[in-house]
Amino acid sequence: MAADLGELLVPYMPTIRVPRTGDRVYKSECAFSFDSPESEGGLYVCMNTFLGFGREHVERHYRKTGQSVYMHLKRHVKEKATGAAGGAIPRRRNGKVFLDLELNRDFNGEDYEYEDEAKLVIFPDHFEIPLPNIEELPALVTIACDAILNAPSAYKKQEPESWEEEIQVSRHARSLRQLDNGVRIPPSGWKCQKCEMRENLWLNLTDGAVLCGKWFFDGSGGNGHALEHYRDTHYPLAVKLDTITPDGADVYSFEEEEAVLDPHISEHLSHFGIDMLQMQKRTENGHHTDNNSRPRVSEWEVIQESGMKLKEVFGSGYTGIKNLGNSCYLGAVMQVLFNIPDFQRMYVGNLQRIFDYSPLDPSQDFATQMAKLGHGLLSGQYSKPPMKSELIEQVMKEEYKVLNGHQQRGISPRMLKALVSRGHPEFSSNRQQDAHEFLLHIVNLVERNSAGSENPSDVFRFLVEERIQCCQSRRVRYTQRVDYCIQLPAPIEAATNREELLAYEAKRKEAEENMRALPEPVRARIPFTACLQAFTEPENVPDFWSSALQAKSAGVKTSRFASFPEYMILQIKKFTFGVDWVPKKLDLAIDVPDFLDLNRLRATGLQAGEEELPDLMPPIVLPEDTRDNSMSSDSPEIDEAAVMQLAEMGFPLEACRKAVYYTGNMGPEMAFNWIIAHMEEPDFAEPLTLPSMMDPGPSTSDSPMGATPLGSSPPEESIAILTSMGFPRAHSIQALKATNNNLERALDWIFTHPEEEESDALSDMADTEPNDNAFSNANSHSDSTLSPDRDTSGPRVKDGPGRYELFAFISHMGASTMSGHYVCHIKKEGRWVIYNDHKVCLSERPPKDLGYIYFYHRLSSS
User: Fold this and answer.
1) Is 821 a catalytic residue?
2) CATH 3.40.50.2000 fits 5-80+95-158, yes or no
3) Annotated binding site for Zn(2+)
4) Quick check: is 46 catalytic?
5) Which of the following is catalytic: 30, 145, 328, 485?
6) Which of 318, 319, 375 is nearest to 346 (CA)?
């Protein structure tokens, strides 16, 4: 028999591999479904790719790859026989078979036991070889089987651990000297002390200087002021500001020229008032140690509808999502998205096509994993009610609660979470996250992965018209940007119980001073109309440059809807940062309406009697010139050494001066690229002309080089930077226009819009760059629902009436976004349903006034 098995496996030996370090073995979940070894058909693990497949999907993998040998894993679960010893550990057969396998349900060891079974299966004849079978199998096959059975979970992070081992502790960490200069770093609003950069900022741990990092080839980075500061002061360590979490931060040693570890980072940061690393981590169990725990308990009870006998529901659309540990934000967001028809149609409606055309590793394909999750939620396959006979039997045993817990266990989104969080410093962690940030992250991924196909996130996209007025000249400018979510302020001063809040605050301060117990907290009650009014009120524009005055001036901005989306997302701005960097949540309730009419906030555009600001961009000012350049713009500082170096090459002197000026004195190489790109222009060798403080400013036709028209051409220095990287000038201009002159996003746009693949009809189709919480669209297609009067070269929006009905909301319980728990309520078939992780029940009292993110769908015009 041994010889027969050996001969049988000989043709397949080249396809059988032994897992190596770094290989992930998916032996607990199918790549296309939520089938597992506990499922009726078990799980088939490919002996070459180590991917797992359920019974209905393994044939597809065999046909696509020709891989014939699979390991079939099956776990048999059964109730212990009457008389079994209470408290016994569940029995196993073949103890090593499922080592490190994660259970898909929670078993009570006193009531259940399981037996594991493994065998090799050869396709297409389904020839089975039971395991273990050491004597009869070739040595290579035996080693491969043993390695697969003992392989760790595919979701354990091994790469970050190995990376951390490579980073060494800085020799400056222990003896770092910190200056007592009184510097305190605020929790937001940072910018480089030597320029206006607000990204890639580093905090020097000696003197608290906040400076920008290096410029990188991908358009990110800064002007290198942090490094210059080290050369001047020799202060060695700096921490990147946007990487600070309760678990640590990214620290760089200028002297050692590498990333380092600082074991005393918490102490070093607290020197500058950053106590984030000191705060106690909280989990989703609701246990808090702060003095505000009492209102949170009430909040937990109200939002989860605790104390009510909620009726569980089963079937299609009523499947829960298992909490993987601080992953409730993901479950709440995905439940809402897959209750939107466009997401259902895109991923579940096209399920077979997506699966058939999936790559060889479907675990790394976004569309496949979205389709898998959508099918799991909507099929009802993983949300089946207990059989009547089982129910009667369990009631007889008075174990109804145990049955309920086992029946409604939800699906586990491990594979999707691992994919969408890959490379993200926060979502890839096991910490609690902000559901709003994750929602926008998912929308961004949907956009990036929908090129050339239907884009379901179109239903969220809308245009915001921003009206900016110069307070001195009274002239205005109208611009539009893309957004996906409206963030509504929560003005505490508009609370209807203001007197009660003031009385509580006085009692609280008195109790703190006298070291007595704090009074019962009071929740602010704010009218929804006040939130909407706060959103529409004018706001000051920081660092506003008036093109009418050719100087900085005071400016105010108001926002209105240039279009209304099919689905409107409203986020209540409940979270803020304390002075200790700890994100805190405002305790408030808002009477959010079931029906919403926003038509009065429709944008109107330029009004009669309004005079537009000239379409001029401010002149380029070097960071070092900001102190006095405003008074001497007629004689800009130009790197004469770079000018002479270019002139020695034979180029006209005035052209060299313009090249150096318009590339921001970034060196002769950058200026040379500008010269090559502008040699054919008629005014190439004419003197450099700039707008003056005393001159109201010529028209754009009179001075094409002195100021850049807002709607015609992006800044020349940005174009020069892109062209110096090898991108065509026309493509660079198109990318900058599509991203509102944001250099980093323009680079991303170029990579997602290859020039040779664009048709003439779509060449100008790009999104207006949104604010920080929006994303550029990476695909274009015609849509009958698009606004008929909108230019097809603009962003795709599904405009319509601004009348909406509430259909879902996500609520947060806890003191901050870094702790607590999320649940969502969704209106289905005229009744509200609460999705609390794996539990899905009919809602008795939906707490609409305590929501965090609200989802409205547009009402038909009829």
Assistant:
1) yes
2) no
3) 192, 195, 212, 225
4) no
5) 328
6) 375
